[in-house]
Amino acid sequence: MKNQLKLLSVIVVAILMTSCVSSKLSPDEVKAKVYSNNFSFVAKEYDNNTSYSAPLGTGRIASTNIPQVPDEAIGIQVTHDKLVINLPSNDNETKTNNYSLNKVSEDFTVARKELSNGNILVNFFLNDHKDIKVVKMEIGKDGKIDCSVEGSNLQPLYYVGYLQR
Fold this sequence. Notes:
Blueprint: H1 2-22, H2 27-36, E1 39-46, E2 52-53, E3 61-62, E4 75-78, E5 83-87, H3 91-96, E6 101-105, E7 108-114, E8 120-126, E9 134-139, E10 144-151, E11 154-163
Antiparallel strand pairs: 1-4, 1-11, 2-3, 4-5, 5-6, 7-8, 8-9, 9-10, 10-11
């Protein structure tokens, strides 16, 4: 009976370990997804604070901007012929779940460059939107993405997230 319990616990631990390991993307999987032009960027954090709280005697401290919706709802989806952008541009939008950067582009150009550190720099130039000129992504070998959205009448907006499996 003790041997069966030990065997069962070893099997459960092994299953948990393999499921944790398999949730990460390998560098080859990351590269294949990026070059296939069919992937999703999920934004986890962004640095677009426009509101601050100042507790008495402590100075200015940036308030939190953690999204209050499921992760997959915030980000950029890339398909062969479409670029879907759904991102907040300030703190108030995360509270109302209403995002001002909610665009669909069907006319865009993609430029990719492999960097010396193994990361891939991807630029999306939107031809059918005047307010957003370029979406820049630096995609790490592990699937981490640093993203910026830039436009003529838009201050650069910065996001950090990951490549969805």
